[in-house]
């Protein structure tokens, strides 16, 4: 679980990095908590 907790802390940063290169699509495998969902929703609104 420690690795998944660390990834969730980094998810908003990873999304920002992906958006800097202006992707046409962002693939998400699974959203397990509210913070991850919030980050994903924020990315889709750009």
Q: What is the topology?
A:
Elements: H1 2-20, H2 34-44
Please provide a written account of the structure:
InterPro entries: P-loop_NTPase, T2SS/T4SS_dom. Residues 11-43 form the Bacterial type II secretion system protein E domain. Belongs to the GSP E family. It holds the Pfam family T2SSE. This is Bacterial type II secretion system protein E domain-containing protein. With 46 residues, this protein is mainly α. The protein has one domain (2-44). Helices cover 65% and strands 0% of the residues. It has two helices and no strands. The chain has helices at residues 2-20, 34-44. It is globular, with a radius of gyration of 11 Å. It starts with a helix and ends with a helix.
Question: Can I get a quick summary?
Answer:
The chain is mainly alpha-helical. It has one domain (2-44). It is 65% helix and 0% strand.
Note the overall shape.
Answer: globular
Element-by-element helix/strand order: HH
Major β-sheet profile: none
Structural class: mainly alpha
Could you tell me the strand content as a percent range? under 5%
Average pLDDT, rounded to a whole number, is: 75
- Straight-line N-to-C gap: 31 Å
Defining key terms:
mainly alpha, 2 helices, globular
């Amino acid at each position: 679980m420690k690795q998944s907790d660390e990834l969730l802390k980094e998810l908003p940063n990873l999304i920002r990095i992906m958006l800097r290169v202006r992707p046409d699509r962002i693939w998400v495998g699974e959203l397990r908590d509210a913070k991850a969902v919030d980050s994903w929703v924020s990315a889709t609104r750009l």
